[in-house]
Automatic annotation (TrEMBL):
Coiled coil start-end: none
Presence of keyword DNA-binding: yes
Source species of the chain: Reticulibacter mediterranei
Entries under Pfam families matching the protein: DDE_Tnp_IS240
Record flagged with keyword DNA-binding: yes
Sorted UniProt keywords: DNA recombination, DNA-binding, Transposition
Name this protein carries in UniProt: DDE domain-containing protein
């Protein structure tokens, strides 16, 4: 299973996608999901790792008109460091668990990790970054737990 993740240049999580394959079709699906969820304009540059699936998916999306002509795909080592550093947080949480029993369990757990990571980075409306008591109150209100 593969976890696709998109972050902006400030490290804010844009979207994530869990896929059983890492091919052009999965990359295209992730790009479409990210573009649909993105409330901002499409970036002029998208940095990815050197996997061969990205250029094919990117070219298809440009040909179909989902991406503007001036948008550029860059597969340059080290330009992907923002996502790699952000992804490290998720890896540190999943490795000690020694895997998941099912794809559904993995997806639900990763959704929780990603959501908590976004809250920690201050991406939840009404909960400021670094406001631990606000984060605790917000989580308690989600689950109906008294604080």
């Amino acid at each position: 299973m593969y976890l696709y993740r998109a972050v902006d240049s400030q490290g804010n999580t844009l979207d994530f996608f869990f896929s059983p394959t890492r091919d052009a079709q999965a990359a295209k699906h992730f790009f479409l999901k990210m573009l649909a969820a993105s409330h901002a304009n499409v970036s002029r540059v998208i940095n990815v790792d050197k996997h061969a699936a990205y250029p094919k998916a990117f070219a298809e999306l440009k040909a179909e008109g989902h991406l503007p002509e001036n948008c550029e795909l860059r597969q340059v080592k080290y330009l992907n460091n923002v996502i790699e550093q952000d992804h490290r947080f998720i890896k540190c949480l999943t490795k000690p668990g020694m895997g998941f029993f099912s794809d559904l369990t993995a997806w639900r757990t990763l959704q929780g990790f990603e959501t908590m990571n976004m809250m920690r980075k201050g991406q939840v409306q009404g909960v400021a970054k670094g406001n631990i008591s606000g984060q605790i109150t917000f989580i308690a209100s989600l689950f109906g737990v008294a604080v």
